[in-house]
Amino acid sequence: MIKGAGLAALTCLSATAIAADPTRISSGITSATVAIAGETSTISRDGAACPPACIQPMIAAEGIATIGELEVLAFLEGAVTNGTGLLLDTRLPGAYAAGTLPGAVNVPEPTLQGSNPYRSDLLSALGARGSDFSGAFELVLFAGGADGPEAGEGLRALLEAGYPAARLRYYRGGLAAWQALGLSVSAGQ
Amino acid sequence: MIRMVLLSLAFLGVTAALLVVQSGYTERRGSEGRAPEVTRASLLSETVGTPEARDTAPVTPEAMPSDVDRIVAQALAATPEPEPVPPTVLPEASPVLSPRGDLDDDALRQMTWATMARLNEAAGRSAAPGLPGSLLHTIVQRSLSGQAASKVAPETYEVQPGDSLAGIAKKIYGDINMSGPLFAANQQLLQRPDDLKAGQRLSLPRQ
After folding, report:
1. Are B91 and A162 inside 8 Å of each other by CB?
2. CA distance B152 to B149
3. Which of A31, A109, A122, B62 could be a cystine partner for A90, CB 3.0 to 4.6 Å?
4. In this complex, is the C-beta atom of B120 within 8 Å of any C-beta atom belonging to chain A?
5. Where in this chain does the record put each LysM domain (chain B) (predicted)?
6. Residue A16: which domain range?
């Protein structure tokens, strides 16, 4: 199975948390070191800093599936086209207007939080009837990229509001991964 | 006698026709313009169930949308409900208790209404008039939030040399008929309508 077994690799991935902020990679993680066959290299991150651009874990919350581009395409062609699903861009309206996935609807993450006194109205627009979510839309949430915290936070807020995890999915790659693959982008409505 | 009978028959006929047209109209509106969330019970329970709707004084801007919602919901409640959902699934008081955070401001409210309008549009439905997500509702919310251009006039006006009440009324309100209210609002300053002195500060009544 493992090719190049001669490399007797001892991999040690240690996350060093340094009190200095920003932590760059993700919450509490500034760099990582890997040692293979006696050679040590360090992984650090340039450019965007955390917070706010924290690299997100693969799983947003328990029970919520994380999906990739092919699943997003199938979701757009299936549930969204049939009117049973919605692809939600959780970024703020300005970022959404600049460019988003075709078919995505802008639902900014702050509107999903429990601190929004009008959230129940918003949940109604998503098909919920009070605490009954049987008629609610299937949702796929995404943000600007794998380092966009909005999607995960929006998903956790929806879960906390009672939205069933089975109706929620997380497109972790977000707009950045979508664009990196050369897939079409449309201007937000 | 026959005339009387004919007359009453005609009256009954017209009444029946009007009733038929009326119910047909509401049915049509109910099937086209009805968003799935538009049930009286759910709306009422949500507005009643959220603590801020109850606890806030009725004049605060936060409470007013709920009042408007309730009034509009009651007004529209006569619409027939074609939704096949049996009444047993009507939700009890909403468990979503929204604690007030720092985000409770006009921007969040506007963002929520705009989001709901987009959701309803994306879902291929138009919310019933006046209910959340509808254009009317958005307009009402905007005007309630005080960001509409309601403050046309400033609060006071400093009289310039050569001003007349009618001139000020025309200048501030664009309406010479406002000189009457303007005089009435400044009677502690002005003995007569032409008693203007440069430098006086007139308080400006709302139009």
Report:
1. no
2. 6
3. A109
4. yes
5. 155-204
6. 5-43
